[in-house]
Specification:
alpha+beta; two-stranded antiparallel sheet; 26% strand; ten-stranded antiparallel beta sheet
């Protein structure tokens, strides 16, 4: 068993350093043993990981409700019929916008994002996890108690990821935490249980400081921030680099990557577009994306924070569990600012454990960029 999977399982419920970490570990949990009994969301997740943290946690997944309009996290809404002719045209236009941005660098890569996802297992008043009587920590049949109601938890996270190993990395999680319930009856059940905490998100902002080096991941391999900065800035070079990494991941003897190269590029883009890559690499990534099959233009939309953008989508998952009642697969969407080529939001549509389809995960990027001190904002 991979060490990070084992660690997460033993520390299930701890506050994680970044949402990408939660997403990556969740993927591995689902791929390895379907999360050892914990229900994994049935769609792929972003794969960019902050690694090197010894005590990490994962956002629990329990009863999931398709997000409504609460907290600005509802499904995207088409606002106008006029849009580029197709996904390829829009991606190529976005590449031109992206490469016009001024290349900058700083000591820390800053992001501020609003995440909304299904609430997870119920925590006791002391913060301890609830498990069925008679089970043992580390027992392969261990089960974590899950709520009998549907709810979502929303919160904002800020991150300052150090470029140099000697600098401290910082995250603040749990900013403006909010619970939303599927119905008054669901909220009543929650209150009857004593209004316990849902999942791992703290009630008040929580600061995490990390003195050890942080690394990102492309696919299944770790890379440093300086390595990200050296990624090719032309489409031909970046395509060759990604194909080399894809081949290595599919041949991984422990965790062989499944899926097509087009799916790999799409998943990589979800993360790199929110990461510390150069304007040239971002433009090259859009051009590589433009040549992949399966990407569909949704059109003009408003993102979860109400900002205008253009949405692209790609089907995710081909097994029956990831499909809705009509046999349609889940999908992931990228919402991009057509004026700048900036990624505004990522959303995953899927089917919950009650067979309902809708937005299962929403990540809206409020701000991102380089800064030169902790707590500074671009």
């Amino acid at each position: 068993m991979n060490d990070d999977i084992r660690i997460v399982r033993e520390l299930y419920g701890e506050v994680p350093p970044a949402p990408h970490l939660r997403a990556r570990i969740q993927n591995r949990l689902a791929d390895a043993e379907t999360a050892r009994g914990a229900r994994a969301l049935r769609f792929p997740r972003p794969a960019l990981l902050l690694a090197g943290v010894t005590a990490v946690g994962v956002l629990s997944v329990g009863a999931v409700v398709a997000l409504s309009g609460a907290d600005g996290a509802g499904p995207v809404t088409t606002v106008a019929p006029e849009a580029p002719a197709d996904a390829r045209s829009f991606l190529l236009a976005s590449a031109q916008k992206a490469e016009r941005a001024q290349a900058t660098v700083g000591r820390y890569w800053y992001t501020r994002e609003r995440t909304v996802q299904g609430a997870g297992p119920v925590a006791g008043k002391d913060g301890a996890k609830r498990v069925p009587a008679g089970t043992r920590v580390g027992d392969r049949k261990r089960r974590i108690a899950e709520p009998s109601f549907s709810a979502t938890v929303a919160h904002t996270q800020e991150s300052w990821t150090a470029r140099d190993a000697g600098d401290r990395t910082r995250t603040i999680v749990g900013i403006d935490r909010k619970y939303t319930f599927a119905s008054p009856a669901d909220e009543a059940k929650w209150k009857a249980m004593g209004s316990p905490s849902l999942g791992w998100v703290p009630a008040k902002p929580h600061v995490n400081n990390y003195d050890e080096p942080m690394r990102f991941m492309i696919g299944q391999k770790q890379v440093g921030m300086r390595e990200l900065a050296k990624l090719p800035t032309d489409a031909t070079g970046l395509n060759a680099e990604l194909r080399k990494r894809y081949k290595a991941d599919t041949g991984d003897p422990k965790f062989p990557l499944q899926g097509s190269y087009a799916s790999y590029v799409w998943s990589t883009a979800q993360d790199l577009l929110a990461g510390p890559i150069t304007p040239g690499t971002k433009a090259a990534l859009y051009r590589v994306l433009a040549e992949q099959e399966g990407i569909r233009l949704i059109g003009k939309v408003t993102d979860p924070l109400g900002r205008p953008g253009v949405a692209l989508s790609r089907a995710q998952g081909s097994d029956k569990r990831s499909m809705d009642a009509k046999g349609r697969p889940g999908e992931a969407r990228l919402i991009i600012d057509p004026a700048t080529g900036r990624l505004l939001a990522y959303q995953a549509f899927g089917v919950d454990d009650r067979g309902r389809s809708g937005v299962q995960l929403s990540m809206a990027y409020e701000a991102m960029g380089w800064v030169n001190s902790l707590s500074a904002r671009p």
